[in-house]
Structure formats: C-alpha cells, structure tokens
Amino acid sequence: xxxxxxxxxxxxxxxxxxxxxxxxxxxxxxxxxxxxxxxxxxxxxxxxxxxxxxxxxxxxxxxxxxxxxxxxxxxxxxxxxxxxxxxxxxxxxxxxxxxxxxxxxxxxxxxxxxxxxxxxxxxxxxxxxxxxxxxxxxxxxxxxxxxxxxxxxxxxxxxxxxxxxxxxxxxxxxxxxxxxxxxxxxxxxxxxxxxxxxxxxxxxxxxxxxxxxxxxxxxxxxxxxxxxxxxxxxxxxxxxxxxxxxxxxxxxxxxxxxxxxxxxxxxxxxxxxxxxxxxxxxxxxxxxxxxxxxxxxxxxxxxxxxxxxxxxx
Length: 313
Description:
The protein has a single domain (3-302), classed as Thiamin diphosphate (ThDP)-binding fold, Pyr/PP domains (Rossmann fold, 3-Layer(aba) Sandwich). It has helices at residues 3-26, 41-48, 64-70, 74-81, 115-128, 147-158, 206-221, 250-257, 261-271, 277-300, and strands spanning 56-58, 135-140, 163-169, 172-173, 176-177, 198-202, 227-232. The chain contains 10 helices and 7 strands. It has 313 residues and is an alpha/beta fold. The radius of gyration is 19 Å and the shape is globular. α6 links the parallel β2 (135-140) and β3.
C-alpha cells in the first residue's frame, strides 16, 4: 500500500469510527457526551503522519481523530467510549479523555486551551533531555483567545522549544463565529508577536497539511523553535451531540462539504492510478469490518470496576 493510499485509509477509518459512534450515542448505548470531528480528518491525519511514535501530542474534547491518527488502537478507543475496563484509559475517560502514552498521545484534555501549556512543558522536557523529539498541540479557534494560548506560545518561543502549535480553525467556538471574537484575519497572524513562523494551510487537503507540518517539525527537531500552524477546516456536525448547528447558514455547510477531505484524497489516488475503484471499495469494507469488530468486542468486555476509580489519580 502506498503512503497516499494508507493516508486515505486513515481518513476513512476516522470518519467511519465517528459515524458508528454517533449512532451508538443516539441509541443510548454509550455514556457521556460526544464531539465529532467529521470534516476535520485531514488535519489529524496530515499532522500525525509526520510524527514518530516517540513524539507526543496533546488533544482536546474533539479527540477521536487525533487519537486514531496517532495510533491509539480502534478496539481500545471503542471500549473506552463504552466505559469498559479494556478501554485505552480503563473506561474512566470516555470520549473527551482518550489517549495512550505508549503511542505518544497524552490523554486528551477537555478544558479549552489547557493542552497548550502542557505541550510547552513537554517540549521543554524534550529539550532539557537533549532529544530531537517534538511536542504537538491541537486546539481550536476558541482556545486561541484563552490567556494560556499567549503565555505558553510566548514561553515556547523565547526558549526555542521543539513544539508545533496546531490551531484547527473550524470557524466556530461552540456556536460563535470566529469573526465575532477576533479582529485579525488568521490565528496564525498572531505568531508575529512571538517572533515565530505563523503558517495558514488548507485543512481540507491532507497533503497540504503534511507539507506544512514537515517543515514545522523539521524546524523543531533542529532546535529552531516552535511554529504556529493554522489549519482552516470545518466540522460537519454541531458542537456536540445535542447541538443541531442551526446557527450556521445551510449554504456555508454545503460549501464546506464540497471540500470533503476524504473525497479529495479518494479522487487523487484514483487519478494517480495508485488504486482502482475496486481496491477502494475493498479497503473501505475492511475498515467497516474493523470498526464493527471493535463494537462487538467492546460490548462483550467487562465494565470498569468502581474500585478502580481512584487508581492513576
């Protein structure tokens, strides 16, 4: 399988996982809440495909795509959302707190903006230990107006920390459009205040995200400091499972769906003759089976035990 085809498979894996999970939540089969990243898959896959397993990421309440792209196993992800003991966090984290440090993902942090200073701290540790490891922080456009955004990125800049700060700008902080809370056109424009590169990239094109990420990661590994990378993207669903998203114009949603990152990459690999239609169909069926097997295994797994509640705290 070529890299481009493997990238497509990962995009589909995230989309199908979230579609299946969405209905499981609606059916009342999963506890808690859910924040979907459908439409944003190219950011997670483009970024994480440029990282090593010993590079670490911090994530947000919208974490499924980041986790899958970084290598958290699908069965462990599914079990976690079911609240099972076999989950990646022992069934104690749920949708908003998935992760696995063994593959370089700090369990996701649901407090808006809270992962930014933690990523700076991880990067500081990497630098003090004289490694070439990189810390990557995912956050949304809403987090770019939290105080810790400015404090942590400024600190990372003055110390030349090996970090990449990735803003997934999906244009809405919950129901508030980014234009109502920022006077600058881009979150990345703020990088100039810290003396670091600020890069804006098309977050619907996985290859464009990869190209920008490789440059930022190389800069970090070489000890030249952090980059603020802004990926312009869009979430097709509402903020959470209880949000119908009626504050968004229908034509806006339709416009972004025409830029579907999965459709773009599918067209690309077929046009480049890396795979044919039959191969794509077989690959998608394989992903569907993988996810269905994970659902079956999660349903059969033991529940997290109450006495485990205070372990690892």
